[in-house]
Structures are given as C-alpha cells and as structure tokens.
Specification:
heterodimer, B: MetI-like fold
Chain lengths: 332, 293
C-alpha cells in the first residue's frame, strides 16, 4: 500500500467516527424521547401537580396540554425537543417549573469536580497497583493486591460511602456530613467513587501487562539481559495501554452512573443527586436531560479513546480493533 | 461485529461441553470459593426465612436495640429484627438478580439466534439496535428507564434487562454465524436436515453455553446495579427487605446504631464477591491463556 493512500485513509477515519457518533446520539435521542411517551400518567396532570395544583380542573388540564403542545403530532414534538436539546434546552422541570438548563448549570460544576477528582485518584491508585502486581506476579505482593482489589470491586459504592461517613466523619470528626460541592470537600466522595474503577483498572492493567509479557519479542529482550521492570515499563506498558484506554473510556460511563449513588450518600449537590430526586418526583424531562448528557459525554470519551488508540497502535488502522481478549472485554 | 467473537474463538473447546466447564470450575481455587459462597447464600435465602423471626414484625419497645442473643444483629428503627431482614433480603436481592440474569440470557440467545438465522434486513435492524444499546452507558440507561416507569422492583428488573441483553445477543449472533462452517453442521446440512432443526439441534446448545458463561460474568454487575438502584430508593419499596434499601435506611441511624449497616453491607459484598470470583474462574477455564503468568 502506498504512503499517500494510507494517509488518505487515516484522514477519512476521523470524520467517519464523528459521523458514527452523531448517529449514535440521534438514535439515543429517539430512545430517550420515546421514554416520555411510555411514562404512565398524564403529563399535564403531573406538571400541574408539580406546581402544587393537587386536584386540577378539566379546564386547567386542557390549558396545560395546549401549553405543553400535547395536541400536536408526535414527530413535530420530537423535532421540537431535539432542536432544543441540540442547543442545550431540555424544556422545563415538571417539579419546579424552572428551565432544566438553568438547574443543570447550578449542579454540573459539583459533579465535574467530583468526577475529575475521582479520575485522578483512580488512576493514581490503579497504575502503581497494576504495575506492581504484574512485576511480582505469583509472589506475595501480587497475591495481596489481587485480594485487596477483589474486595474493592466487590464492594458497592454505597457501602464504602456509608463506612467512610461513619469512620471518618462521625468517628474522627473530619470532613462534613453535608458537602457543599467544592474541592476541599470532594475527597471523601471522590475516594468512594474512585474505589471501583481503581480496583478494576488495576486488575485489567495487570492482566494486560502479563499478556503483553508473554510476547515472543520480550523473550529476546529478556535473553539480552533486560530486567523485569524494564521489560514491563518500556515494552509491555505501551502494548497494554491500548486495551487499558478502551476500558478507561467505558469507565467514564461508570463514573457518571456512579455519581447518583455517591452524591446521594454524601448529599453532594451535583446532577446525580438532582436526577435521583427528579426520578422519585417523576420529573421525566430532567431524567431525559441527564440521560442525554451522560450519553453525550460517554460517546465523546469513546471517540477520544478511539482516536487516541489508533494513534498509539498503528495496527488498529488496518484491522479496526486490537487483537486479543482484552479488546473484547473492553468493547462491552 | 467487532468485539464479541473473541470469547467464542478461544473457548470453542471448553465451551461446547457444559459439564467440562463445571468440573474445571470446581477444580479452580477461586471458582471453588465463589461457588461455596454462592451455595451458602442460596442456602440462607431458601432455608433462612424458616429459622428467623418475621422480618416485617415491628416492635416499638425495641427500636434500635444493640446486637443480643435474641436479635443477633440488633433491631432497626421500627424494631424489626435485622438478621431476619438480612435473610429476607437475600431472597429479594438474589431472586431479582437471578430473574434479570435469566431474562437477559434468554433474550440474548433468542434475539441473537433470530438475527443470525434470518439474516437480511432483520439482522441489520437487530444489529443496529444492539450497537445503539452498547453505545450507551448501561446503568445510565437503566436509571432513565426507572426514572420514566417509576420506582419499583418490577421496573428495576425491566430496566436492567433492557440495558443488559444487547451484549449477549451480539455474542449469540456471532457464535451462531460461526457455527455455519462447523463439520457437524455441514454434515447435517448434507444429510438434508432442515435449517430450523440444525439451528435448534446443533447451534443452539453451543450458543446457550456461551451466553450462559458471558451472562455469569455480568452477574456481579447485575447485583451491584440492582442494590444500587434499591439504595437510591428506586427499587424494592418498603417494607420489603432488600440489602441496598436496608443500607440506605441504616444511614439515618448511623450515630445511634452503626452495627445496623453491618448485615446488609457484608451481605452485598459476599454476593458480589462470589459472582466476581466465579466469573474470574470462568475466564480462566474457558480461556487458558489468561491463566499464564
């Protein structure tokens, strides 16, 4: 294959991936919007109930239906909603009557703080644990790490959260029971949110490193006198980084899904807790907005990971996916 | 179809013999540990309720009692025996998790087989839907579904099923397509056996084993998702006991009686831990390459 042809194909890849992303987003929007149609009960009644009108009259209901545009055909309402959603306008909350975009703007910074802090903690824990585990495979440090990470992936975030709340806040008097969403308060919820990805990343990294270590060319390096650590860091780590990146991308979705639980435990003023409150109040437009936001972030992170992977590993440009079971795992 | 065939390709030998998988699982150390814990939990769920007090019997004389001979794990805010509730919770949590497990498995096998067998536009439509579902974070989707249908155990089961079957369907489809060139399938075709009979007699058993293995690997995520949704108050509704929901209630008594959180917390950890151990052992058994190193 000539150099020019290869370059043209690589350039074509990015627009193709972006197009794929937009199609996924559109399909997700269709799914999320149709959830509203599946929601039991009369939306007009719910909106009025949300505003404190406990027993609306028929006239009020009819007026509200008109205001919500429920008399128009479904496709028209969908296009309206989609147009708004594309501009970040998800309509108004049934519960408070305020625009959802305003409310999200209030809650989003706290969730971003929390998620970023959790990402940093998880990486800072997973990388050394994974490397150490692979470096000492079969000996006691590896065994200890395997048991510790097993306990960590088996412990739901809400259990960790409740334990930390009890031990650190109630027993030691550190931290706050009611967090205000700023960095100084983020460490307890961030640790809670980070525990699961940290442990699962460490395990995946260890397995990936060991799989890379079994490659034939590493036997050559070893025969030429390279130490185990050198083999791991300079040879196995770059090879293991691609499947690790794929898992990392999927984990962004996990962190977003974990946010409601952790934010509820620590009464963290983020969109996760806001969404849970909205679910309990049956405030469907807010749930739609949260879902679309999460899908958008998930799709964006998948795209970023995909482009980054192909930059790291040129083999992927030809075959589309890395070989080996790690990729199969990660692609879920 | 990019990712799924990996498990299939590597496990063609072990996967086609369910008995072999079971036997090797019992020989594998973490498989044995996981199965032992799972058996213990099953025993507790099945026999436990006969031995413990009524989990919903409230008693306002003994609210938040510390652990004692009468109430081994103490009593909760309504004076209910916490041990009895943990045991009753085993039924709720594990029952719901197994329901989701069976539902996603059956839907995955059926949809995947139909896609592979029908081909054409049916296959295209199914594959696009599967791609879409896999392109969304599954717990967020589950949250959205519960958020729309309203909080209840039934809706949580629906939500986890809808968000969980797609990967298994993709796996079943690729495995069924892969069977097309297998010697026994070719032989059956040459002998004049019909398409449907080949599908049911030759392809279905292997596909079912593959999906069962993959679904078992998802079991820990199912239990985690289920108890997390219940913790948020979106799943099992009071007064029914469920571990996630009990832990949520115990938070409010954390200052007076922290031991209340112990039972449900440890129970969830045991259940998820068993599922993780079994899935790790399964991975080793169906894919010996993982064991090296």
């Amino acid at each position: 294959m000539s150099v020019t042809r290869r370059r043209r194909r690589r350039l074509g890849r990015v627009p193709r991936r972006i197009l794929h992303m937009l199609v996924t987003l559109w399909a997700a929007s269709l799914l999320v919007w149709s959830l509203l149609a599946l929601a039991p009960g009369d939306p007009a009644r719910r909106v009025l109930n949300g505003r404190g009108v406990v027993d609306p009259t028929d006239g009020q209901l009819a007026a509200e239906r008109l205001a919500l545009g429920l008399d128009r055909p479904a496709w028209e309402r969908y296009l309206d909603w989609l147009g708004g959603a594309a501009r970040g306008d998800f309509g108004q909350s049934w519960r408070t009557g305020r625009p959802i975009s305003d409310e999200l703007a209030v809650y989003l910074p706290a969730t971003i703080n929390l998620t970023l802090a959790a990402l940093v903690i998880a990486l800072a824990v997973a990388l050394p644990l994974g490397l150490l585990g692979a470096a000492t495979a079969g000996r006691w440090p590896d065994a200890v790490i395997r048991v510790v990470t097993l306990v960590m992936v088996s412990t739901p975030a809400f259990v960790i959260g409740v334990v930390l709340l009890y031990v650190v806040v109630l027993r030691w008097g550190a931290g706050n029971v009611v967090a205000d969403g700023t960095w100084s308060n983020a460490w307890l919820p961030a640790i809670t949110l980070a525990a699961w990805p940290a442990a699962s990343w460490a395990r995946i990294l260890r397995a990936g490193l060991l799989e890379s270590m079994s490659a034939t060319y590493l036997h050559v390096s070893e025969a030429r006198g390279a130490g185990r650590l050198r083999l791991l860091v300079t040879h196995a780590l770059p090879n293991a980084s691609v499947p690790f990146l794929a898992v990392f991308g999927v984990s962004v979705g996990w962190l977003l899904a974990g946010a409601p639980v952790v934010e509820t435990v620590f009464t963290w003023p983020g969109i996760g807790r806001y969404t849970v409150e909205s679910i309990i109040a049956r405030d469907v437009p807010v749930v739609q907005a949260f879902t679309m936001l999460a899908v958008l972030l998930f799709v964006l992170s998948s795209l970023a990971v995909d482009l980054l992977s192909t930059t790291i590993d040129p083999r992927l440009r030809e075959r589309g996916r890395p070989a080996g079971s790690m990729a199969g795992e990660a692609a879920r | 179809m990019t990712a799924a065939p990996v498990l299939v390709a590597r496990s063609a030998r072990a996967g086609s013999q369910p008995v072999g998988v079971w036997a090797s699982l019992l020989r594998h150390p973490s498989g044995r540990a996981g199965l032992a814990i799972a058996a213990l939990l099953a025993l507790v769920a099945l026999v436990g309720p006969w031995l413990t007090a009524d989990p919903n019997q409230t008693s306002y004389d003994t609210q938040l009692a510390p652990p004692s001979a009468e109430h081994l794990l103490g009593t909760d805010q309504a004076g209910r025996d916490q041990l009895a509730r943990v045991v009753a919770g085993a039924q709720a949590t594990l029952g719901a998790a197994l329901t989701v497990f069976v539902l996603v498995g059956v839907i995955g096998v059926v949809v995947g087989m139909v896609a592979a067998l029908a081909g054409g536009w049916v296959d295209s439509v199914i594959s696009r839907i599967v791609d879409l579902l896999l392109g969304m974070p599954s717990l967020v989707l589950a949250l959205a579904i519960v958020g729309t249908l309203g909080p209840s155990l039934r809706n949580v089961i629906i939500a986890l099923t809808v968000s969980g079957w797609a990967y298994l369907a993709r796996l079943a489809r690729s495995h069924a397509l892969g069977a097309h060139d297998r010697p026994d399938v070719i032989a059956a075709r040459m002998a004049g056996v019909g398409r449907v009979r080949i599908a049911v007699g030759h392809v279905l058993p292997g596909v079912t084993v593959q999906v069962a293995i993959a679904a078992t690997m998802e079991l820990s995520a199912i239990i985690l998702g289920l108890s997390a949704l219940s913790f948020l108050g979106l799943g099992v509704q009071p007064p029914t006991a469920e571990w996630g929901q009990m832990l949520a209630e115990s938070r409010f008594a954390l200052t007076q009686m922290p031991t209340l959180a112990l039972g449900p917390g440890l129970a969830v950890m045991l259940a998820v831990g068993a599922a993780v151990l079994i899935s790790e052992a399964l991975r080793d058994v169906v894919d010996p390459a993982w064991r090296r190193g």
